Structure formats: C-alpha cells, structure tokens
Amino acid sequence: MNARTSARTTESFTLAHLSDPHLSTPTGMRARDVMGKRILGYLSWRLHRRTEHRGEVLDALLADLAEQRPDHVVVTGDLTHIGLPDEYRQVRAWLHKLGAPSSVSVVPGNHDAYVRSAIPRSLDLWSEFMDSDLDASCRSEGSSDDAFPYLRVRGGVGLIGVSTARPSLPFLATGTIGPDQLRRLALLLAETREAGLCRVILIHHPTSRGETSARKGLVDSGEFRAVVAREGVELVLHGHTHRASWTTVPVPGGTAPSIGVPSSSAMGNGRGWRARYNLCSLRQAAEGWELTVTTRRFDGHEDRFVHESERTVVLPGRRSERPALTAPVA
Ligand SMILES: [Fe+2]
C-alpha cells in the first residue's frame, strides 16, 4: 500500500468530529419503499425523529464550524433516516456545505444502509468524501465493502475509515465490519504505524464493551479489538449511541481513547442528549501524540454552539521519527 505524502508539516491538526446528524427528510417515497423495515423507520421519523433532529441546529453547527476553522471534518455515520435515494442527494448537498471533499471524511452508519439496495447508491453519491489515498492497485474495486477501510493522510494524521453499515432485521441496529475488511485494516494499521502517522479510526458503531445493547451493537467488536490490540491505533472516533462517551481500547503499550459524540442535530427532547461535537487537536509532543478534545454544545437559548469542556491526554503511540510526513491538504 502506498499513501500519498508530501513535505508539508503542521504544528497541530484539528479534526471536527460530528456524528448522526440524520439531516435528510424522507421524501419521494414510492409504494415499494414503505414495505418492510422502511415503514418502521418512516413512522419513527414521523413520530419522533423529525422533531428531534432539526435543521436550525445544523445551521448553527455550520456557523460554528466556520468560526472554529478546523483543519478537517469527520462525520461518523447516520446522515440519513431510512436510506432513500433522495436522502443521499440531500446529504451530498449538505456535505458540500461542510467543506471541500478533500477536507471532509465520512463513514456510513446503519441508517445509511437501511436496506441492501441502498448501499451502492449511498456510496456512489458520497464517494468523493470517502476517496482513499491508497494506490488503487492496493484495493479491490467495484463493491461497497471493498472501498473500506480507506486511508486519507492529512497533516501527519492517517484517517482510516471503516464501514460497519450492514442492513439488519427490523428492530435491530447492529453493525458488522467483516473478515475481509478486518484483514485489510490490520495491514493498513501496520503500514501507517511504520510511516509514523497518528492513526485515527473513523467508525460508526462503538467498539468498546458495554457501550450499547446487543440489539444495537457491533457484531464483530471482539475481532476489531483483537486487531488494534495487535497493530495499535492512536484514536478511535465513533457515533451511533447519540451520547457523549470516552472509553478505551487496549493497544500495545497501553490503551487508546475511543470517543463518541451525540448527534450533531439533536434538540435533546425527552431524555435525549442535546447536540454536541468535538474538536480533536493532535500535536506531536516529546512522549508521543498529544490530544486535546474540546466539546462544543448547542445552546437552545442562544441558538448557537458554545464551549462545554476541554480535556488533554497523551496518546500511547510512539513519537514519529519522520515528522515531515503529511499529505495533500485541500
Ligand atoms: Fe446508528
């Protein structure tokens, strides 16, 4: 595998991590679209989700991101509700508002793979936000699974996008990585470790034990943890639970943070979490990579995102011997 690199360096690199915006409106439904699982999802949107996930919160998010000016934005899945073709088009238009495709990275969630026929359509429409820096000869082409994991190298950081998006039975919201993707992930983690990159895995479902129920969990989370326990990773970013969380996954020499964010569009009705997103700043320190996570929360009174908290940790990865490794930035 060959990652494209250049000689540009940065002192720190800031990722804005958002997730689960559920930003689309299910429109253009045909009779066959409301059969099976989609009818349940549509009813859930009518009864609950359309008042919970609000466009005005996303407008405030865009305004805040314009002020905070992160180097890159990552979206860890569930951008749609029931994966209708028109929802993917709505999402693509919104992603372009977030930034240029080279500065915005996306992985799909379970809502983006609601039914099997939806998956290729979503990937086709969002593919420029999931383009890999990997040499095409190193990847298989032509199916949704083979497009993952992707690697995008930005500012000394290797963004590794993993897909857990698989159709599941009604009332389930599980995810699966699959053995082929896990095998490629292990190779990619080893190669990017040798390149001295700060490796950040983007994944929709949480991978730590106990973060969600079996009905909503990652089926092969144990296999994922075995891969990172062997090959290492510096940081895992996920969504899915609509809650803020900070857990760890075992890696050689310690543990790496696994950080989840609530939905970036949520009003927080009932017992739900109000919208938040994280700014994750990565910089090389004497001992390794240092991470500062700044959480910004939607304030419903002021109709804007405000500072909530900040936390700094040193990640377990070794300090890069080759700090000049960086990739083309938009
Ligand atoms: Fe989800």
Could you characterize the architecture of this molecule?
Helix 3 (85-98) runs parallel beside helix 4. This protein has one domain: 4-Layer Sandwich (Purple Acid Phosphatase, chain A, domain 2). A hairpin with a 4-residue loop joins strand 11 (289-299) and strand 12. Helix content is 24%, strand content 24%. With 330 residues, it is an alpha/beta fold. The site of fe (ii) ion has 7 residues, from loops.
Keywords:
single chain, 330 residues, alpha/beta, Purple Acid Phosphatase, chain A, domain 2, 6-stranded mixed β-sheet, 6 helices, globular, binds fe (ii) ion
Provide a short characterization of the protein structure.
By secondary structure, the protein is of the alpha/beta class. It has helices at 37-52, 55-68, 85-98, 118-126, 179-194, 221-231; strands spanning 12-18, 72-76, 104-107, 150-154, 157-161, 198-202, 235-238, 245-251, 254-260, 276-284, 289-299, 304-314.
